[in-house]
From TrEMBL:
It comes from the Eukaryota. This is Mitochondrial cytochrome c oxidase subunit VIc/VIIs domain-containing protein. Gene3D superfamilies: Mitochondrial cytochrome c oxidase subunit VIc/VIIs. The lineage of its organism: Eukaryota, Metazoa, Spiralia, Lophotrochozoa, Mollusca. One of its GO terms (cellular component) is mitochondrial inner membrane. It is found in: Mitochondrion inner membrane.
Length: 84
């Protein structure tokens, strides 16, 4: 004798499916945010700390001044006056 197949569950199927997918999405979101924060903390902060240890503000200013980046100072360090 053949066994009877169970009746398909139709009532509340969408709600159960939606609840399951929302739980999965929440777990994946929290995990990805945690991994991103850990990655950022490890790579960005360590690189920034290394940069701060070796950065010389005065040397960088002199390099920019000689390159002519500033409009008010010429490459020799003399302050320009307005020609109005």
């Amino acid at each position: 004798m053949a066994t009877k197949l169970p009746k398909p569950v139709m009532k509340g199927l969408w709600v159960k499916s939606y609840a399951y997918h929302m739980k999965v999405a929440t777990v994946l979101t929290v995990a990805s945010v945690g991994l991103y924060k850990a990655w950022e903390e490890y790579f960005f902060t360590s690189r920034w700390t290394a940069f701060e240890k070796t950065y010389d503000m005065e040397k960088d200013f002199q390099r920019k001044m000689k390159a002519g980046v500033f409009q008010c100072i010429d490459s020799n360090g003399v302050i320009r006056k307005d020609d109005d």
